[in-house]
Specification:
Largest sheet: 10 strands, mixed
Shape: globular
Radius of gyration: 25 Å
Strand content: 15-25%
Bound molecules: 1,6-di-O-phosphono-beta-D-fructofuranose
CATH architecture of the largest domain: 3-Layer(aba) Sandwich
Helix content: 40-55%
Number of domains: 3
Number of strands: 20
Length: 590
């Protein structure tokens, strides 16, 4: 075989030239974890800061954990005492997010060679099946700084039934676990809090690590962001920036891009701040203004036409994944569909033809919802009827909202062509005779995209790479010292960053889900009074009227933007610049 072929073959199995380099990249390690030039666990002390739970039901449910942790925030301090012989297990829960592998590396560094780290394959489901194996340092050298969750795998099983809890107990006893670390989002950390209480008597500490590209697990200044958000938004911003750059070049397309982020619009907002497209929809604002689908279409069309009259035949609309669930009439429709799908499960399972399924559904929902459902394109109807996930959620990532908007706009534009004067008047656009003539020539050429899965498993940005290894060190240290029911976190990401632990029980509230009160960590949605949203709302009309976009390019590992934090995080935390400071660049030797 010739030399060139050999070189290319050597890049197989996560060994591209880039990956080879990434595995050797130095990482920023927080000074709390460095003693005598070695990276090791820290110890924790209580801070005066306490989280208050207002609900007696929550206090009652978490009585053991709260009695021990007093809902007080902990702070990490450098220490030297050596802890030996502990057995800690770790699992991923939910969708992947860049940096997950570095969390494992961080935990392993905290545990050192005197304690045992077990990896749990395939998330909570694998835990229930006892899929544990020992993670050696050797195994981790191959995944340092690489994207994905594939080293362990993940799943979305919610541990909730008595049988499942019994299985958990059995596994904890079988492996004599002193700690369990759950790397997950809001729902998974709710599960971590519940398991901490459940395993209290067995003296198995349960620790959460805040993961999700959605960015919807935030606790004011205590948890500025989850890991994975930075990488995902940088990837989406790169792609969006490239498309924006194409628009005035080809000068004919309107691109509709749906970006991931299940419910909250943090991802869309961040990508908007990075790239400044003409239109970005923010679900939380649409819900607050009670905008109907027709209102949204009217809003978009007005901008499209205003740009058209200025000679701008192109543009881009950024659509948050969860939009549909925030439009009031869809909220009602989805609720009714959820109920009907649950009640008619058996009947529906026996029907093969979609038209017959649809007929049954329509006969069971109210007239208004039936009318809305019938007016939707068939592919949207089909997706709205897909199975719910294990937490009972509609699978919004499967719904082509960007295509729905295009279809509805096309219908509206058709009616505009039939009666331009009437519609321009309805849209409140002042148009002269020339403009009306132009309407007849108006062409609406579109493209649609969904940026979702491509953002979850890319190699972590420098921020996520550093953040995750330090979160892993934090979680490992908490478990070693047997602090149970805590979420690992780092505050003040721009300067004087601090290692902290947030009591999970202090984050739990009661929320009505499917008609029942459930203990949950509430999703952090985009706050319309936040500095990031206010800044966006100040700038957006300027971005709509002219081409103001910018193209941030690929995520960078060297140079001026290598240490850049998400803009939304920097704005909302009141930082004075966009750079993170997480410690000292250190060679990781495993
Ligand atoms: P997590 O909340 O588990 O991190 O998942 C985030 C997410 O990427 C959402 O943005 C998206 O709606 C969902 O996962 C898609 O899930 P799936 O992998 O099951 O298609």
């Amino acid at each position: 075989m010739d030399k060139l072929k050999k070189i290319i073959i050597q890049t197989e199995k996560n060994n591209s030239f880039l990956e080879q380099t990434f595995k050797k990249l130095k990482l920023f390690i927080h000074p709390t974890f460095i003693q005598n030039n070695t990276v090791q666990a820290c110890s924790f002390t209580q801070t005066p800061q306490k989280l208050n739970s207002n609900s007696t039901a929550v206090n009652q449910y978490f009585k053991n954990t709260i009695q021990q942790n007093k809902n007080q925030v902990l702070q990490g301090n450098t220490k030297s005492t050596l802890i030996k012989g502990k057995k800690i297990a770790v699992l991923f829960s939910g969708g992947p997010a860049a940096g997950g592998h570095n969390v494992l590396v961080g935990i392993k560094l905290a545990l050192g060679e005197n304690n045992t780290l077990y990896g749990i394959k395939n998330g909570p489901k694998g835990f229930l099946n006892g899929e544990l194996f020992e993670i050696t340092s050797q195994k981790l050298t191959h995944i340092l700084n690489l994207g994905g969750f594939d080293f362990l795998g993940s799943d979305r099983t919610k541990i909730k039934t008595p049988e499942q809890f019994n299985k958990v107990k059995k596994i904890v006893l079988q492996y004599q676990l002193d700690g369990l670390i759950i790397i997950g989002g809001d729902d998974s950390n709710t599960n971590a809090a519940i398991l901490a209480e459940y395993l209290f008597d067995l003296k198995c500490a349960v620790i959460g690590v805040p993961k999700t590209i959605d960015g919807d697990l935030q606790v004011n200044h205590l948890l500025p962001i989850t890991f994975g958000f930075d990488t995902a938004t940088k990837i989406y911003a790169e792609l969006t920036g490239n498309i924006l750059q194409d628009t005035p070049s080809s000068h004919k397309y309107w691109h509709f891009i749906k970006v991931m982020g299940r419910s909250a619009s943090h991802v869309a907002l961040e990508v908007a701040l990075q790239t400044k497209p003409p239109i970005t929809l923010i679900s939380e604002e649409i819900a607050q203004k009670k905008m109907s689908l027709n209102d949204i279409i009217t809003y978009i069309l007005k901008i499209i036409l205003k740009r058209y009259f200025k000679g701008l035949h192109h543009g881009l609309v950024l659509v948050p994944e969860g939009l549909i669930e925030f439009i009031p009439e869809f909220q009602i429709l989805i609720q009714e569909l959820n109920n009907t799908l649950a009640q008619q499960e058996k009947e529906l399972a026996q029907i093969n033809l979609f038209s017959e399924k649809k007929e049954l559904i329509i006969s069971k929902i109210n007239e208004k919802s039936a009318k809305l459902f019938s007016s939707l394109p068939q592919n949207i109807q089909e997706k709205l009827l897909l199975n719910r996930d294990s937490h009972g959620n509609l699978q919004v990532s499967q719904i082509d909202t960007e295509q729905l908007l295009i279809e509805m706009l096309k219908r509206k534009i058709q009616s505009l062509k039939n009666d331009p004067q009437k519609l321009l008047y309805a849209l409140n656009i002042n148009a002269n005779q020339d403009d009306i003539e132009k309407i007849h020539k108006f062409k609406f050429a579109t493209n649609h995209h969904f940026f979702g899965y491509e953002g979850r498993c890319g190699a972590p940005s420098t921020f996520d790479a550093a953040y995750t290894v330090n979160l892993g060190l934090t979680a490992g240290s908490l478990a070693l010292e047997h602090h149970t029911g805590y979420l690992a976190s780092i505050t003040n990401l721009d300067q004087n960053s601090q290692i902290i632990a947030i009591p999970l029980s202090g984050l739990i509230t009661l929320e009505k889900r499917s008609g029942k009160n459930e203990m949950v960590i509430q999703k952090a949605l985009v706050d319309l009074k936040s500095p990031a949203f206010e800044f966006f709302s100040e700038r957006r009309s300027h971005w709509a009227e002219t081409d103001c976009f910018s193209s941030p390019g690929p995520r960078q590992y060297f140079g001026p933007t290598a240490n850049q934090l998400p803009f939304t995080v920097a704005l909302n935390q009141g930082y004075s610049n966009t750079q993170f400071d997480l410690g000292i660049e250190t060679d990781i030797s495993l």
